[in-house]
């Protein structure tokens, strides 16, 4: 379990908010990281592993024309995946991964091209479905390294959004719940 996953679960629990995950190249690794954290069931709703391109449209509501024109490895696809899983699973927050882990290029994109996205509730800095925050990544290494760095990166992106929106009152409640630490 990563420190990012632990902190994401902690912050979501303190805020009484939930998370859903849409994964492509990570194939369930993000969900596995989150569920390795004790108490994750308080915040984690579930995930959709939409590895096949058509499932991104069918299950997550990604625009079919966008997929046909740009392929699955695209920043707008990542944003729509995050918004779509948030909506589909009834969560406050949605995060998504899409990219090329290798060994071969996909949709004209080189190995290591990855997009991670976060979509939040109304009033969040990046609410869904209006949009989400997308981080483009250009990762080096083999397939396993690219996939694991994608997991870390999407959790870090969500963590930055959660930490940036946490109010002083929520921090006070969190400190109280954790014995002043």
- Please state how the strands of the largest beta sheet are arranged side by side: 2-1-3-4-5
Question: Which CATH first-tier class would you pick?
Answer: Alpha Beta
What is the fold named in CATH at topology level? Maf protein
Strand runs, count: 5
Q: What's the CATH H-level superfamily name?
A: CinA-like
Structural class call reads alpha/beta
What gap, in angstroms, lies between the N and C termini? Answer: 21 Å
Count of separate structural domains: 1
Order of helices and strands: HEHEHHHEEEHH
> Radius of gyration from the CA trace?
16 Å
Using brief descriptors, characterize the structure shown.
five-stranded mixed sheet, 7 helices, 17% strand, disordered C terminus, globular, 181 residues, single chain, alpha/beta, Maf protein
Model description:
There is one protein chain. Helices cover 46% and strands 17% of the residues. With 181 residues, the protein is of the alpha/beta class. The protein has a single domain, classed as Alpha-Beta Complex (Maf protein), CATH 3.90.950. Helix 1 (3-15) runs parallel beside helix 6. The longest helix is centred in the C-terminal third of the chain and has 23 residues, at 143-165. The two termini are 21 Å apart.
């Amino acid at each position: 379990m990563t420190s990012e996953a632990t902190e994401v679960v902690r912050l979501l629990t303190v805020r009484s908010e939930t998370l859903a995950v849409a994964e492509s190249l990570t194939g369930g690794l993000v969900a596995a990281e989150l569920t390795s954290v004790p108490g994750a069931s308080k915040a984690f709703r579930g995930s959709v592993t939409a590895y096949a391109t058509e499932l991104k449209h069918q299950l997550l509501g990604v625009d079919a024309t966008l997929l046909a024109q740009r392929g699955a490895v695209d920043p707008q696809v990542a944003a729509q995946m995050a918004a779509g899983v948030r909506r589909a699973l009834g969560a406050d927050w949605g995060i998504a991964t899409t990219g090329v882990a290798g060994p071969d290029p996909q949709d004209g994109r080189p190995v290591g091209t990855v997009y991670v996205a976060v979509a939040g509730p109304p009033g969040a800095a990046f609410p869904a479905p209006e949009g989400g925050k997308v981080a483009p990544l250009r990762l080096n290494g083999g397939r396993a390294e690219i996939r694991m760095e994608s997991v870390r990166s999407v959790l870090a992106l969500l963590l930055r959004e959660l930490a940036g929106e946490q109010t002083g009152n929520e921090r006070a409640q969190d400190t109280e719940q954790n014995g002043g630490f």
